[in-house]
Amino acid sequence: MTDLLDVKDLWVRFPTRKGRFDAVRGVSFRLGRERLGIVGESGSGKSMTGRAILRLIRSPGQVEASHIRLDGENLLDKTEAEMRQVRGQRISMVMQDPKFSLNPVMSIGEQLTEAYRLHARGGRAEARRRAVEMLEAVAIRDPERVMRAYPHEMSGGMGQRIMIAMMLIPDPELLIADEPTSALDVSVRGQVLQIMDRLVQDRGMGLIFISHDLNLVAQFCDRVMIMYAGRVVETCEAHKLHEAQHPYTRGLLNSLPRFDAPQNRLEVLRRDPAWAAAPVKGPVA
Amino acid sequence: MSALDFEGLNVWFGEGRDRVNAVQGASFKVASGESFGLVGESGSGKSTILRALTGLAPHWSGKIRVMDRELDRGKGRDRAFYKSVQMVFQDPYASLHPRQSVDQVLSEVLYLHGFRDIEARIERLLDDVGLGSAFRFRYPHQLSGGQRQRVAIARALAPEPSILLLDEPTSALDVSVQAEILNLLCDLRAEHGLTFLMVSHDLVVVAHMCEHIVVMQQGRIVEEMSVSDMRAMRVTHPYSQSLLEASLGYRRAQL
Ligand SMILES: Nc1ncnc2c1ncn2[C@@H]1O[C@H](COP(=O)(O)OP(=O)(O)OP(=O)(O)O)[C@@H](O)[C@H]1O
Ligand SMILES: Nc1ncnc2c1ncn2[C@@H]1O[C@H](COP(=O)(O)OP(=O)(O)OP(=O)(O)O)[C@@H](O)[C@H]1O
Ligand SMILES: [Mg+2]
Ligand SMILES: [Mg+2]
Fold first, then answer.
1. Would A40 disulfide with which of A17, A86, A225, A227, CB 3.0-4.6 Å?
2. Is the pLDDT of residue B15 over 70?
3. Ligand 2 within 6 A of B43 CB?
4. Does the pLDDT of residue B252 top 60, yes or no?
5. Membrane-spanning residues where (chain B) (predicted)?
């Protein structure tokens, strides 16, 4: 059986005034109809990995890979026009910066209905009805008002939820969600995760879930990839994340504040240059 | 003395059928030197309270006092206000100008607030937030989400304010950087007697940072509690109960 996604030896490079900077260094993984979490410290290349799959790295950044296959088709061989099709229909990405990715001068209702009509033929009324339904699904309290509102009139968490609603409209085969719930309180987050979960379980969508929340990823995903300095340093089953071996992963787990045990200072990660060079541990994804 | 005092604060946007009563009758006091947490549902009005205080939400009624001085509703905030009150915004993307490098952002703020040893201060600020001078000449699009947030924190610290408003300051950060930033904030508070008003959806972070907490739902404050009440689950409102249970259940299941 071919994997939904198969990424082999992915590099993302930027020229800088101090020479070339490799933001992603030889990342390989495969994804089935499952939930794959990507965790790792700030700047470790999580977002760049997600964007590179969609070929959304802005120049002068460059993407190289042996292949990035979606259902067996190499995305690197596609023309820009074909990629636009892939982005609109088959892979959706919820960007880390929700308000940035919404059109600031178009009402949220217009944007959602337009997204629906691009995807499914059907009348304006039908599109509108679906848009309101999507907003309700992501726990927006007053969908009618929000339909008429503009992105800057939304709270941080509402912006995130609207982006998620928008990205789910095309019914993608693969959803790349970059910190999609970082601004949500636990109850709303639960509802949003449930929607994504249902799409994976019922419709066989693949999900790449980028997050810095280790507990969340441990609980919500099937597998986790831990990135450090542009590389995957460890891959493990999500429910075993707390048994992870790599000192970096252990360090991450120890930096979490504890509700039951107040501390004066939080433990800080002591980074070891060897981590950036060390070979990958754990089963190859 | 209270550093911040909100009395019967109402904040609204829009009119007619689009009117949103984002904050309704909110009252609370933040003592000088205290760290105060604001938690609650997404869309419940937390950021709006901070925005009303900094003059970014024009329609409000009630009273806001900063260091016992009542704010004037009609007027904007002057430089003296921003020297003492600084804000770290929830959205690090929107809060940095795309065409300004890190160096420009920080020099401008430092210059505006009358500092002259700008070089040394920029280096120090970048170190404090764990970025280091390698990032000094980068533009926002050349930074990751967490790196941008740290620039925003450095900018807020630059004028050496006495009151810091922190809107989800670490929700874009991984836990190791979060630990560094939270430690930094604690140190600064201890050294300079800073006052924090902090919004976060992460109850564990709030419990770590704050002595007092209010819980908001649909524009209203539904409960105020001390951190020891919170840790002991001594809360009465059903929403705060469910919020606590949900955050704990999800931690406990794992730890
Ligand atoms: N245009 C650019 N030029 C140079 N370096 C860049 C550019 N864009 C991104 N980078 C660097 O690439 C690295 C990886 O960035 P990426 O956005 O993937 O990090 P991330 O893991 O998503 O971090 P975060 O959790 O903070 O969002 C970062 O160190 C960032 O500074
Ligand atoms: N400029 C604006 N125009 C119209 N409505 C607004 C504006 N800013 C905020 N609102 C509305 O006010 C309400 C409260 O928003 P606020 O940003 O304070 O929420 P929040 O508690 O910070 O939520 P989150 O945790 O999701 O950031 C929301 O319903 C929002 O849509
Ligand atoms: Mg990122
Ligand atoms: Mg907010």
1. A227
2. yes
3. yes
4. no
5. none
- Across the range B85-103, mean pLDDT stands at 86
Q: What integer best gives the mean pLDDT of chain A?
A: 89
Q: Is the pTM of this model over 0.80?
A: yes
B110 close to B121: Cβ distance less than 8 angstroms? yes
> Does the A1-90+174-285 domain belong in CATH 3.40.50.300?
yes
3-state SS assignment for residue A237: strand
Q: Which of B86, B46, B82 has the alpha carbon at shortest distance from B199?
A: B46
According to the model, what pLDDT value does residue A118 have? 83
The average pLDDT across A206-226 equals 93
Do A174 and A206 touch, CB atoms closer than 8 A? yes
DSSP letter for each residue of B64-84: EEETTEEPPSSS---HHHHHH
Query: What's the pLDDT tens digit per position in A248-281?
Result: 888 888 888 877 777 888 888 777 777 777 555 4
Contact B47, B199 (CB under 8 A): yes
Q: Which atom of ligand 1 is nearest to the CA of B146?
A: 26
A229 touches chain B (CB under 8 A): no
Chain A environment of B41 (Cβ under 8 Å) = 185, 187-188
- The residue with greater pLDDT, B17 or A282, is B17
So what's the pLDDT on residue B92?
Answer: 67
Residue among B15, B23, B42, B46 whose CB has most ligand 2 atoms within 8 A, to mutate: B46
A40 with B246: Cβ contact below 8 A: no
- ipTM exceeds 0.90, yes or no: no
Segments making up each domain of chain A, as ranges = 1-90+174-285, 92-171
Q: Is residue B146 in contact with ligand 1, taking CB distance under 6 Å?
A: yes
- Domains along chain B? 2-254 (3.40.50.300)
- The bound ligand whose nearest atom lies closest to the alpha carbon of A39 is 1
Q: Is B158 helix (H, G, I), strand (E, B) or coil?
A: coil
Tokens read off for A280: 């990958």
Question: Best substitution site from B102, B141, B143 to test ligand 1's pocket, by max atoms within 8 Å of Cβ?
Answer: B143
The answer to whether residue B142 neighbours chain A at the CB level (below 8 Å) is yes
Of these ranges, A53-57, A168-172, B199-203, the one predicted with the greatest mean pLDDT is: A53-57
- A102 to chain B nearest CA, in Å? 12
CB nearest A99 (choices: B91, B137, B203) = B91
Nearest by Cα to A5 from A202, A245, A254, A173: A173
Residues of B in contact with A97 (CB under 8 A): 91, 93, 145
